TrEMBL record:
Species name: Nakamurella leprariae
Any one Gene Ontology cellular component term annotated for this protein: cytosol
Assembly mode: Homooctamer.
EC number: 4.2.1.24
Family annotation (SUPFAM superfamilies): Aldolase, HemD-like
Job description of the protein: Catalyzes an early step in the biosynthesis of tetrapyrroles. Binds two molecules of 5-aminolevulinate per subunit, each at a distinct site, and catalyzes their condensation to form porphobilinogen.
First and last residue of the signal peptide: none
The entry's keywords: Heme biosynthesis, Lyase, Porphyrin biosynthesis
GO biological process: heme biosynthetic process
Name of this chain's protein: Delta-aminolevulinic acid dehydratase
Length: 646
């Protein structure tokens, strides 16, 4: 961009005049950014700090490519040119690039160009391309359809999470790794001496590579550091860099605009003694020390706060400093009192008779009523994510007064349980809700007397039959959730009488009549009029929970559950601490707890991912060893990816 008069690159008046900017991408991907920077008056230095490497184990990608060719995926989502290259190479290894039945969505123009150059057709691309969020926004929802995402090891969960909440069944496969490259010594010197005043980081690996070069020795604290997105920012900060700004959108233009805004107040000045003074300039001093300003001309300025402090008595400094243990992510990890593991989590799932397509639930975004077929696929996905077990609920087409479909071996819950036993049986723990409310035409958890009251003892007989049917279908554990007196003993004796000695009872020990079951009513198309206050506990009763739990244990419960979870953490803590409770303790984070967080997050009022993790950590902290949650799969993936809990 040398101007016609030959006055050099950094014309005065332009926003980045006098700034030398380090661009950390591979040269073939840096041209657009370099042009924008130079148009704004900067000089640039391109030093790639990342390299792209294949995964350590290519087998999963190759398997995915073979599945693509077998037509197993409805969609492929491509979020970088590297993903295109890795996928195409795997398709070639697997026998060819023709993918007639599969549609392709790409994140932006660069990726689209790479895909087309490789002979792939592009079906969806955002108008304003660039970010996973924009891609997710323009991708039409097709619940139950399958998506393959060939990913980098650094990829954020934004896209898969968004697609799952649109009802897609998403398979992520590691396609390539982004690795940091050491910064050349010459560049390190340029950064330390201020010859390079700003650096733009476009990936977490580049941030780590830069930090490794400049943080240990110090001396680059005046460097202006810009990041393209928040994962890169987080990586930079975790590695000890001070990030000056993050681009408002994931594009080169936004990155340059962010840099212009960040340096607006920082007038450039010549490097003293530099051989290239006059063309290479250094930014003015920034981040002044808080009290004494010795950088400015004349005697040091003593600020009023400093004077007060000098004249006062010596400060009685605290000797106890708990903040020491919060200083770095690594220390916080080491001292974490509560840990969460994928195996702690159980996924409740809904299967509905005679559906032809899965149906997303309005009040529980991301949760589906499954067909038998989509249930199997989603169960495989859940098992692959490493969760501890599945809790199945069935929704029949036909309902009657006694809930006949619950005990019919061909009823939806029983056949779906048998499907799961065949599909994933040995690999996870299969549980089912043992309760009649999904099956009765009045929607109560038991059968009714002539006067319309819930008949405890007549219900126990139905529960016994239901326990036998579920056990025969292959359930490992039955979840007695109806809150009838004596239900655990009744079901245990029926199971034992039939020789089903290995079928266990997951007893809803303390279960409250809660308004937070609201969205569940949509999930099971509940027919209930009225409420369940004659059998479920009233919310204010804490000691009563101990009585309910003690009875269930005496009757033969193998595990004990408290439900709901978040409004009943005191009850959960009581049960978990009770020395008489020697069976595992679980809590059920129910439909309304899920819906509240999803709804607030959808409005932008809370950070969804943090709120989800905090809610689950709090349930574990209160004493649950096992947590039932509709987020089980996405949280398991985040935990496996090494995400911190705090
Ligand atoms: C009873 C049952 C219910 C839930 C689980 N088992 C509904 C109820 O007791 O009214 C609620 C689960 C949730 O809200 O997520 N079959």
């Amino acid at each position: 961009m040398t101007d016609p008069a030959g006055r050099g690159r950094s014309g005065p008046g332009r926003p980045l005049a006098g700034w030398r900017v380090l661009v950390t991408r591979p040269a073939d991907r840096a041209t657009g950014l370099v042009a924008l920077l130079e148009a704004a008056g900067a000089t640039t230095e391109v030093v790639p700090l990342i390299g792209i490497e294949p995964p350590d184990d290519p087998a999963p990608l190759d398997r995915a490519a073979a599945q693509v060719q077998a037509g197993r995926f409805d969609w492929i989502g491509l979020t970088s040119v590297h993903a295109v290259a890795a996928l195409v190479a795997a398709l070639d290894r697997a026998g060819g690039r023709t993918v007639p039945a599969t549609r392709i969505a790409v994140v932006g123009a660069g990726t689209a160009a790479a895909a087309r150059a490789a002979g792939l057709r592009v079906d969806v691309m955002p108008d304003r391309g660039g970010s996973a969020a924009e891609l997710a926004a323009c991708w039409p929802a097709e619940p139950g359809r399958t998506v393959l995402l060939p990913r980098s090891d650094q990829a954020a969960p934004t896209l898969p999470d968004a697609l799952r909440s649109k009802g897609f069944i998403v398979t992520e496969v590691l396609a390539y790794r982004t690795v940091g490259r050491p910064v050349p010594p010459r560049t390190v010197r340029a950064l330390r001496t201020g010859r390079v005043g700003a650096v733009l980081l476009a990936s977490p690996s580049a941030a780590q590579a830069l930090a490794a070069a400049v943080v240990p020795g110090g001396g680059a604290d005046e460097l202006v550091v810009g990041t393209i997105g928040s994962p890169t920012r987080a990586a930079a900060e975790a590695a000890g860099l001070t990030v000056t700004f993050t681009a408002a959108a994931p594009s080169d233009a936004a990155l340059v605009a962010g840099l212009c805004a960040a340096v607006r107040d920082l007038a450039p000045r010549p490097v003293r003694g530099s051989s290239v003074a006059g063309t290479t300039l250094e930014p003015a001093a920034r981040r002044r020390p808080p009290a004494l300003d010795q950088d400015s001309a004349g005697p040091p300025v003593i600020h009023p706060t400093a004077r007060t402090r000098q004249e006062a008595e010596p400060m009685p400094y605290p000797t106890e400093r708990p903040r020491r243990l919060r200083r770095t992510p690594a220390i916080r990890r080491l001292v974490a009192e509560t840990r969460l593991h994928p195996r702690d989590l159980v996924l409740p799932m809904f299967v509905k008779e005679s559906l032809t397509e899965p149906v997303p639930l309005q009040s529980m975004p991301g949760v589906l009523q499954h067909t038998r077929e989509s249930l199997r696929r989603a169960a495989v996905e859940a098992v692959e994510a490493g969760i501890g077990g599945l809790m199945l609920f069935g929704i029949p087409t036909h309902r009657d007064a006694v809930g006949s479909a619950a005990t019919d071996p061909d009823g939806i819950l029983n056949v779906a349980m048998a499907d799961l036993r065949a599909e994933v049986g040995a690999e996870t723990v299969l549980m089912a809700d043992l309760c009649l409310d999904e099956f009765t035409d009045h929607g109560h958890c038991g059968v009714l007397t002539a006067s319309g009251a819930v008949d405890n003892d007549a219900t126990l007989v139905r529960y016994q039959d239901m326990g036998l049917a579920l056990s025969a279908a292959g359930a490992d554990l039955v979840g007695t959730s109806g809150m009838m007196d004596g239900q655990v003993a009744a079901v245990r004796s029926a199971l034992d009488g039939a020789g089903a000695l290995d079928t266990g009872i997951f007893a809803y020990g303390a279960k409250y009549a809660s308004a937070f079951y609201g969205p569940f009513r949509e999930a099971v198309d509940s027919a209930l009029q009225g409420d369940r206050r004659t059998y479920q506990q009233q919310p204010g009763n804490r000691r009563e929970a101990a009585r309910e739990v003690a009875l269930d244990i005496a009757e033969g419960a193998d595990l004990i559950m408290v439900k709901p979870a978040m409004s009943y953490l005191d009850v959960l803590a009581d049960v978990a601490r009770d020395p008489a409770v020697t069976v595992p303790v679980a809590a059920y984070q129910i439909s309304g707890e899920y819906a509240m967080i999803e709804a607030a997050a959808a409005n932008g009022w809370i950070d969804r991912d943090r709120a989800v993790m905090e809610s689950l950590v709090s349930i574990k902290r209160a004493g649950a060893q096992i947590v039932l949650t509709y987020w089980a799969v996405s949280v398991a993936r985040r935990l496996t990816a090494g995400e911190d809990l705090g």
